[in-house]
Amino acid sequence: MVTMKAAVVREQGGSFAIEQIQLEAPRDNEVLVRILGVGMCHTDLVVRDQYFPTPLPAVLGHEGAGVVEQVGAGVTKVKPGDHVVLSYASCGVCANCQKGLYGYCPDLYGRNFSGGRPDGSSPCCDAHGQRVSAYFFAQSSFGEYALATERNVVKIPDDVPVEIMGPLGCGIQTGAGAVINALKPGAGTSIAIFGAGSVGLAAVMAAKVVGCTTIIAVDLNEGRLSLAKELGATHAINGREDAVAAIQAITGEGVQYSLECTGLPKVLRQAVDSLRLTGVCGIIGVAPLGTEVSLDINGLLFGRTVRGIIEGDSVPDLFIPQLVDLWKQGRFPFDRLIRKYPLSQIDAAAHASESGEVLKAVLIPEGAGA
After folding, report:
1. pLDDT at position 72, please?
2. Which of 140, 78, 121, 272 is nearest to 194 (CA)?
3. CB atoms within 10 A of CB 328
4. Which secondary-structure segment (H or E) carries 31?
5. Is 233 in contact with 215 (CB distance < 8 Å)?
6. Could you give the CA distance from residue 57 to residue 17 in angstroms, rounded to a whole number?
7. Distance in angstroms (rounded) separating the CA atoms of residues 137 and 120
8. 307 - beta bridge partners?
């Protein structure tokens, strides 16, 4: 057992409290990682608020990065001392996983949101010996250590600052992958991205990388819109105006691609309505379970497509190193989105993230060092 400090949320909408917890040693297929930095994602906050019913109390966090400390007897992919990013969990044996469609594993929810391993056990308990839900996205990285699986650790080069690389495991991967892997716009195409948070801005940068020539960012925050233009957007629209009309004025007939990053039904409707005929809208925004949206059937009849995208359709072992390479080349400056906080200030980081003051908070455990 490892005794460590971790952020525990004990009630719906409650605060994150730093507690001493016990973490089990790795099983045969598991990897113990010393966390050097962990991103805060919108999904952590909506689980705290119980949009998804992960049992509480829980240690959340699913954008961890750090150094491998110990590996289980069956692990061959990484070794102690390796620098790694932690990503999401999938079974690896279903039909979709066999095709590389890990985000569409039928057991995706169970392996990422259940609060335990596939066998139902949790590797964590609190100072009183009581169960704490963990294994969130097969990591629960809001702490000094995380227990991951061999499948969801991704080795990265030792010459990059590992403490800021964690967001590549989920939020940044989701936005960039939605463009590069899922929508696959060709050079010279047009795209509108609704929501200029960290996920949306990752999509903006990816759209520039693949050669989109009309990149439209839509948001309510003027600061984010300004940053979007610095990162590659050719146009910025404040969502308080008629975004659909503005997009049609810019493009003449609508965009070829759109991406909805907010999880708001009215914004999804705008993202679909902004498409030209045969256009494709990708959905990556998270909403409470049961949220419904209204669309014009006749609008879809004319060849428009609406599809959901999980984790950017990425194979993390392939895609995360690609994003690291793009960052090293200066073509994907996701570090411009990051503000670091000590893990002890996790509640302040959460408030700053929810208010829009911060795009991507990265939490650094006390004493962390490569």
Report:
1. 97
2. 272
3. 12
4. strand 30-39
5. yes
6. 11
7. 14
8. 282
